[in-house]
Automatic annotation (TrEMBL):
The lineage of its organism: Bacteria, Bacillati, Bacillota, Bacilli, Bacillales. It holds the Pfam family DCC1-like. This is DCC family thiol-disulfide oxidoreductase YuxK. InterPro entries: DCC1-like, DCC_oxidoreductase. It comes from the Bacteria.
Amino acid sequence: MKRIILFDGVCNFCDASVQFIIKRDPANHFLFTSLQSEKGLELTKKYAIPEDVDSLVLIENGKAFTKSSAALRIAKKLDGLWHLFFLFILVPRKIRDGVYNYVAINRYKWFGKKEDACMLPSPEQRKRFI
């Protein structure tokens, strides 16, 4: 089963992150949907993801991962040396999530926000969105 990444569809940083993942995932491990989409809302309910989660979520093997745990599990599957970031899983989650939260809280200020919620993926990329 494919892993599903839910992302904030109006966040420029999140959009750039999705593009980053797609470029480094030639094996197509991941499918994508925005948190604001119908499918995103359905998955949020199904996996009991708290309503205040507004950044990255990974659904893998029937379980939802958020914050740094999601990011590190995604990095583990990427081509190149990105999988080495998974070693940070050894850092206590409270510390990892503290860093993650700092970036998440400031992402709109640093990277901006879109007026509309959709990027225009290429035809090949469209297959990866649900």
